[in-house]
């Protein structure tokens, strides 16, 4: 894989978006990303299973929201829009992807070139004030603010203060009737293993500290958004997987659980 502009920008260090792409089975990654991903999987073997469930939830949530009439999607921390991202699941919808990483943005714009229904903004998802009034949003969405917002696989990268700020800012901006699909990676409070600690250290090295929360903390942090009638549910339930799909070993000694929810204003 080469940089779309012809230079190997950012290829000497692993990148979280490209690592995620590799774990999903994608091809938009470099050897440094593959090595980092395989090391992380060696530390937490259930990583590949959880990551694939996260992408499957995104697809399921988008399908549900399209059925409810949503045709505008604003997605935070999008990474690389490959492997059946929003625009592939809802090809007639208008989609705005957002990520702060310049390498991920450059590749993504190359991948999406020629698609009139999609824009990719380089912005910090933790600072909505920097992108909510961007001209690209007005250009693509017009004055419509009843939108679907993606907050998938990004909650671990927020401190509690950052998450409260983002949730409030998005709530204030969005019109009544808007919805947000979100996932939350949780573990038992106080539980940690040496391998999990090393796994978290890998994210620190990539410049993206990783935080686990309890389910109760997540339910508090999403306010003023409210869960719709489906509530917070483990991803295995959302996806209709067998109850034993996630084994005790998959919980990695810290009671790992991944929840999905569709929030509403």
UniProtKB/TrEMBL annotation:
Coiled coil: none annotated. Keywords: Methyltransferase, Transferase. Pfam families: Methyltransf_19. GO terms for biological process: methylation. GO terms for molecular function: methyltransferase activity. This is S-adenosyl methyltransferase. It comes from Thermoflexus hugenholtzii JAD2. The lineage of its organism: Bacteria, Bacillati, Chloroflexota, Thermoflexia, Thermoflexales.
